[in-house]
Amino acid sequence: MKSDLDNKEKIRIFVELFYSAMLKDKQLAPFFLDVAVIDREKHFEIVCAYWGKLLFGDQTYARHTMNIHRAVNDKKAFKLEDFLRWLALFTTTVDQNYEGAFANKAKAIAIQIVTNMKKSLLG
C-alpha cells in the first residue's frame, strides 16, 4: 500500500523523486540546469516549503513563484509542451509513489499551477 503525501518528510522525498526525473528529462532539465542554474540543495528546500504551504497551509514559503518563472521565461521561453511535460512527470511521480487525499490534492494543485503558468507566460 502506498502512503499519502501527508507530512513534510514525505514531501521532501517526493520532491527528490520528482526532480530526479525532471533533471534527467531532455526537455525540462535545461530550464533548471542551464537557464535558472539552480543550486539543487537550496532549490529543494524552497520547493518543499512551497508544497508545504500548498498542501498544509504552512507559512514558511513567502516568495512570488510567478515572478521567478517570468525571469526564467525571459531567458528561455516556455512552450505549452514544457508545461504538459512537467505535469505528466509530476502526476506520474505522485501516482507511482503515493495515494490518498493529499496526493490527490497535490495533483489538482499541479493542474492549477500549469493553468496559471500557461495564462501568465504564454498568454
Keywords, please?
123 residues, mainly alpha, 6 helices, 73% helix
Plain-language structure description:
The protein has 123 residues and is mostly helical. It is 73% helix and 0% strand. It has six helices and no strands. The longest helix has 22 residues, at 101-122. The radius of gyration is 14 Å and the shape is globular.
What's the short version?
With 123 residues, this protein is mostly helical. Helices cover 73% and strands 0% of the residues.
Produce the secondary structure layout.
Blueprint: H1 8-22, H2 29-35, H3 40-56, H4 65-75, H5 80-97, H6 101-122
Helix pairs in contact: 1-3, 1-5, 5-6
Beta-strand content bin: under 5%
Helix coverage percent of residues? over 70%
What is the end-to-end distance? 41 Å
Parts with pLDDT < 50 across at least 5 consecutive residues = none
- The gyration radius over C-alpha positions equals 14 Å
Q: Look at the structure and give the mean pLDDT.
A: 95
The number of helical runs is 6
Report the strand count: 0
Largest sheet: none
Helix-strand category? mainly alpha
Shape by Cα distribution: globular
